Amino acid sequence: MPERMSIGQARRAEALGRQVLLQGWVRTRRDSKAGFSFLELNDGSCLGNIQVIAPAELDNYESEIKHLTAGASVSIEGVVKESPGKGQATEVEAARVVVHGTADPENYPLQKKRHSFEFLRTIAHLRPRTNTFGAIARVRNCVCNSIHQFFQEEGFLYIHTPVITASDCEGAGEMFQVTTLDLADPPKDGPRVDFSQDFFDRPAYLTVSGQLEAEIFACGLSKAYTFGPTFRAENSNTARHLAEFWMVEPEMAFCNLEDDMALAERLLKRIFADVLEKCPEDMDFFNQRIDKTTIETLRHIVDSQFVRLPYTEAVEILSASGESFEFPVAWGNDLQSEHERFLTEKHFRCPVIVHDYPRTIKPFYMRVNDDGRTVRAMDVLVPKVGEIIGGSQREERLDVLRERMLEQELNPDDYWWYLELRKYGTVPHAGFGLGLERVVQFITGMANIRDVIPFPRTPGSAEF
Ligand code: 4AD
Ligand code: MG
């Protein structure tokens, strides 16, 4: 019986001499005049293909093998041999080739030429079979694994926060509503829709963040993190925004903003170091084909210290920069992507953590500083992508928190449970949210965030 193996395993010298069963999809077929065919086979276990030699003696050689084209699926039994070819240690001499499915070359969309990423987005059901999307899937998987390992080693509990919620964590009103009401004929209470007759007896939404619930667990179990899908109904058609994305949100009791910034820096360095170590072949691919600086940038970040920069100083640097920005720089305005990129790409040339932002531009839950004008917020900014992490120390004083809610026109009664965390055994605590896709985008150098999530959801697009 041949040993079933991944192509990644069969490509290693340790596999030499073994009888193996390999299964995957044909990338190319070449026929030699010497009476055999070469098949390049890929199964997604690694970037590289394995070369299969199919001799003319195989009984389905003329009937099937000589008709194999890109996209066909096959099982191969054979022996792993040393390859005389360059760039590969091994190849497989086939004793049996079973064809599972053909792929008509007249219609199969993935031909050998390079396809644009825009085109590949329209065939998201086939793009995992390309080198780029295979590499992205493996890097994304490595990042997720690294995140879980990091938090487990640091003593955080992985908790699951709800996807459906009645509260708007970010207070920005950018939520997708969840309802079972008949939209053509909703029940009315006067001129308004009567949501007391809806499924949850109230308006409900897809969550924009699991933070508020993560705080509940941190304020009792000390360190918790959540890692799940989040949804934003903001109509921003940019290369950095998705309507559905994955966010990692740690929350720590008895911690302040300095601890929070230190955790964010450790986490990012750990992720980058793991990807460099565990995905060298995929990272070489991105470095050659997508962004020639990515490996060097990641290595540099792993060894460098992130800059910590108060918002007020950031505004001073931007004002004195002499750059002509599209959006005006003034104390009290939020930093725009162009400002964030100037700081990380031109001024400091490394990740920058901007902290202590004006209270008026940040959500209700951030701790107000003694100056009364700023809050203990922090954003981690990186070159190209801009904001990759947003976090804060939380307001733990009941009266100040209630005041901040009113200031932002939120009804404290709707957040009674959140306020009770401050009423009973309140503690200083802090946390942040890391956008998974922004991280994968940064690592791979992919220009558009829609290409680092398997099935992007953006305004006007929810195919697949
Ligand atoms: O800065 P944000 O909005 O922070 C929060 O939601 C906090 N409740 C997190 C917390 O403190 N627990 O989002 C956090 C991160 C951003 O820095 C960005 O990386 C990512 O989530 N993000 C997006 N990623 C893709 N598409 C979008 N529309 C995103 N919005 C935010
Ligand atoms: Mg933010």
Using only C-alpha atoms, the radius of gyration works out to 27 Å
Count of DSSP strands? 19
Which geometry do the CA atoms define? elongated
Bound small molecules, by name, code or SMILES, are:
4-amino-1,4-dioxobutan-2-aminium adenosine-5'-monophosphate, magnesium ion
User: Strand arrangement, largest sheet?
Assistant: 7-13-14-19-18-17-16-15
Largest β sheet strand count, sense and barrel closure: 8 strands, mixed
Alpha-carbon distance between the two ends:
39 Å
Overview of this structure, please?
This protein is of the alpha+beta class and 464 residues long. Helices cover 28% and strands 25% of the residues. The protein contains 12 helices and 19 strands. The protein has helices at 7-10, 117-121, 131-153, 211-221, 257-278, 280-289, 294-303, 311-319, 337-347, 398-407, 416-423, 436-444; strands spanning 3-4, 19-32, 36-42, 50-55, 73-82, 90-101, 157-158, 164-165, 177-178, 188-189, 192-193, 204-206, 223-231, 244-253, 307-310, 352-358, 374-382, 386-393, 429-435. The strands form 4 sheets. It has an 8-stranded mixed β-sheet with strand order 7-13-14-19-18-17-16-15, with helices on both faces. Strands 2-3-4-6-5 form a 5-stranded mixed β-barrel. Strand 2 (19-32) and strand 3 form a beta hairpin. Helix 5 crosses helix 7 (294-303). The relative contact order is 0.11. The site of magnesium ion has 3 residues, from strand 18.
